Amino acid sequence: MSERPVVCARAGDLALLMGTDRRWQIVRLEPGQTVHTHRGVLAHDDLIGRPWGSRVVSHTGYRFLLLRPSLHDLILRLKRTTQIVYPKEAGYILLKMNIGPGSRVVEAGTGSGGLTAVLAHAVRPDGRVYSYEVRPEMQQLARRNLERLGLADVVEFKERDIAQGFDEVGVEAVFLDLPTPWEYLEQAHAALVNGGYLGSILPTANQVTRLLEALDSPRWGLVEVEEILLRPYKAVAARFRPEDRMVAHTGFLIFARALVGDGAPEEELQPAEEVEEGGEEEEL
After folding, report:
1. Could you tell me the pTM of the whole model?
2. In terms of residue numbers, what domain contains 33?
């Protein structure tokens, strides 16, 4: 049986330092630098070359875990001036809209780049994310965030009002992270391949209602509205119970598919629980 390879932290890597109290921070390792934590100082030189998963000690004797940060960790620590799409929604968006390696995705509303980073990570190495933003200061922040994460090479940032339409056609997915997505459904439909995926996220019910009214059209089908709640638990065997705080409502997710033609819509799909039972389901 071959030995398990040992992977070590290198200069330039992003490192996650997790204290025993679950407080954590992310730092880029640079020779000669130090990191100041809530429980003491650690020298980068003492971290560079250490195996990931090691226990390291600050100058006060406090223990930290030295770990590679996940994309989840990195997104939560992005510098931002706007609300980001939380990881609990972002991962589901990828699955729901079939976004993966090689996908071409249009995003409208770059914001601070949280969802942009998730999309870019998913479509690498051959895919492309086209991210539109009308506010130059927001796009500059997002660009810096993506560069810090090493993901900017698969993103094309476009500073423009999408009322003019998108440059791309035949993309697999369009995601509208905007306050009024119903105003841009025509532009989204023109960019999508037939049968392509439309997604949006909205914080309030009245916005969702406006979007549903606009999607009630022969050009759109399979419209769905969902919400994802994440409830963490205290991971201690002797005191296992829900945490006192949770990330509950952060937004409603709306999905639809781009249809061909402008004729009368076919018979409306029934909600799943109302569909009459048919034959046995076949395995894929």
Report:
1. 0.84
2. 14-69
